[in-house]
Amino acid sequence: MIATAGVGLALAALFLLTRTVQKSEDFDRLQDIILAINIAGGVLLLALLIGNLARLARDYRGNVPGAKLKARVVGMFVGLAVLPLLVVFYFSLQFINRGIDSWFNVEVEEGLANALTLSRAAVELQKRRNLQATEAAAQRLATVPDREVIFELGMLRRENGASDMTLYGNNNTVLATSSGSSTAGMPKPLSEEVVLQIQQGRPFVSLETLAEGGAEIRTAVLFTHRASRIHEARVVQAYYPVDGRLATMVRSVENSFQQYQQLVFFREDLKDLLTVTLSFVLLLSLLAAIYGALILSRRLVAPIQDLVAGTRAVAKGDFDTRLPTPTRDEIGFLISSFNDMTQRLAAARREASMSQALVEAERANLEVILARLSTGVLALEADLSIRNANHAAGSILAVDFEAHRGEKLSDISRENKLLEQFVDIARMHLDMGETDWREQIVLRGEVDRRIVTCACTALPGDEDHAAGFVIVFDDITALLQAQRDAAWGEVARRLAHEIKNPLTPIRLSAERMRHKYLHTMAEDEAQVLDRATHTIVQQVEAMKEMVNAFSDYARAPDIELSRFDLDKLVHEVVDLYRAQESDVRIALTSDPTMPMLEADMGRVRQILHNLIRNAVEALEHTEGGRIDVHVGVAEIDGIDMVQIRVEDNGPGFQAGAVSPVFDPYVTTKPKGTGLGLAIVKKLVEEHVGSIQARNRESGGAIISIRLPVNEAARELMIAKAPRGAEKRRESA
């Protein structure tokens, strides 16, 4: 780019210099421009030269392949080019100095001056003749009457050879005119120049140049008209054509003389400008020689540099490198051999890559299969450090095995109670020398427990030691819970059927005995009978309530989905319990801006009633009892969920009773059936939700419920937790 700009500036300077030599009047205007172009071009070319030489020197010091050969070629070309250029430069300077001086000798200047004087004398002679003719015409027109002046004016024009002749009166008015051209228009009034000179008493004569390139002589003479009584001052103006050759000669001589004078004036500046331009051309030629050397050296060392670059690429593992074959000489043969070698290496690597790709594909398939399994798979080294694990393994044991890959199970189990129990059981078997074992274990967490089936297999290693272990385990807690729920449901159905039938006859019989015998007995006996029958009826009603609870638990709930305002529903339920006479204070925190909930409104109302009623009953003997109900919306794993949390400051759950609290017939209340929370859990699971119970650190219990906001969230829950969905279907 810089070289192109320098060449362009050089050509522009030469063009402008040629123009100044041809037209000296442009020298003063273009001199500074040419000097500026020369300076700019010189700076650019010098910068380019310095940059290329600096790069060459840097490559030379850095032992870049081919740099030394480049330096030798450039030095040789510069040595060969400098001497001829200096010789040409010397003789060119001599030619400029002596040639320009020869242009300005005395003989040429005198010849031009004499030619100019001669041409001017010829013109002056014709001007005098034409002026005399005009004066003679004025003397004749002074005695011609006005009626004959037009005829006389035309005759005088023809006699004198004038092209136009006009007679002017007072106030510069045209009295008569005569023209030799048929296209001539009305003559113009006398110019101010003519009027001023005539008023001074002198005739007017001048040489004027025509627009088409010719010339003519204009004359004007003042005279007094005596043919009338009133002597009137008049002016006659005439135009006389000048010979075309004479006019051309005069202009040519004058232009040549002016150019010569300009050249004389700019002689030294022109010599300096030519010298600077010549120096610039010399620098350009030197640069061209250096560039030629660089290009030639680059072509010479390019195959070597390509071979070096290809060798380094192969060393880095790029076997697809192909080098162009420049020639068919020894270097070409070497490059062809190199290309053949890299081709064979690339083929071998492709075969190895295909084999590795097959292995990786099988590994990827295995990883996909393991990732989709609901069964946990844990691969361990011989020292029980983590080699690999699928997602299900981390979910079951609540550990991010991917983040702890390479670490020992014993090191990461200290902060995880479930994993600690799992490791203890596994280590127990391994310490006993059991490399292949199966066992169903119970892992107890802080909130719940998990029942896990485990199977361990040793990985093949040497004769004495295994290379590692693979432990396959599955969480069957949900399955066992579903089986228990189904069994309890069957028990509830049988109990409801067997107990409900005799309850009505018992109540009717008691009421009939009371009605028949109460008024026939003595007062004391009547009181006993009244109390006895009342107790029977009361207990029958209690047993009916228990039977109805059994029926509710055994019967699969019929879910009828609808959209409703959960905030409004929670307020209604809480207000019902606030209206009861109780010492328990109920606080409600909710978000009025939460979206509409898509669920079974009646079942959600039943869930709220059971949770708040259980909390109220748990606080019967607690002073300052308080229940906090929290309702809000949260995004969990990308799913919009409604959260309902009921907290109390009561005694909480008994030690070891948190996990089975949702099992049927499990209760710590003397009057409870143990079905309230079991029914709540069943209703929540039918809504594809989750429920959790735990004790508060400050005392009391917390029950948390999460429900999907709408059908879309419910489908996502089922897709992400198929095991839970299966459990709910089985329990139904």
Could you walk me through the main structural features you see in this protein, from its secondary elements to its overall organization?
The two termini are 83 Å apart. The chain is built from 19 helices and 17 strands. The longest helix is centred in the middle third of the chain and has 49 residues, at 267-315. It has a 5-stranded antiparallel beta sheet with strand order 2-1-5-4-3, sandwiched between helices. Strands 7-6-10-9-8 form a 5-stranded antiparallel beta sheet. The protein has 732 residues and is an alpha+beta fold. α1 (2-22) packs antiparallel against α8 and α3 (67-103) packs antiparallel against α8. The chain folds into 5 domains: 2-103 and 266-306, no CATH class; 125-260, Beta-Lactamase, CATH 3.30.450.20; 373-475, PAS domain (Beta-Lactamase, 2-Layer Sandwich); 482-553; 559-731, Heat Shock Protein 90 (2-Layer Sandwich), CATH 3.30.565.10. It has helices at residues 2-22, 27-61, 67-103, 106-141, 149-160, 192-199, 244-265, 267-315, 330-372, 391-397, 409-412, 417-431, 477-517, 523-554, 566-579, 601-618, 676-686, 711-720, 722-731, and strands at 164-168, 174-179, 204-209, 215-225, 232-241, 376-381, 386-389, 437-444, 449-459, 468-475, 562-564, 585-590, 597-599, 626-636, 639-648, 690-695, 701-708.
Quick recap:
The chain is an alpha+beta fold. The protein is built from 19 helices and 17 strands. The chain folds into five domains: 2-103 and 266-306, no CATH class; 125-260, Beta-Lactamase, CATH 3.30.450; 373-475, Beta-Lactamase (2-Layer Sandwich), CATH 3.30.450; 482-553; 559-731, Histidine kinase-like ATPase, C-terminal domain (Heat Shock Protein 90, 2-Layer Sandwich), CATH 3.30.565.10.
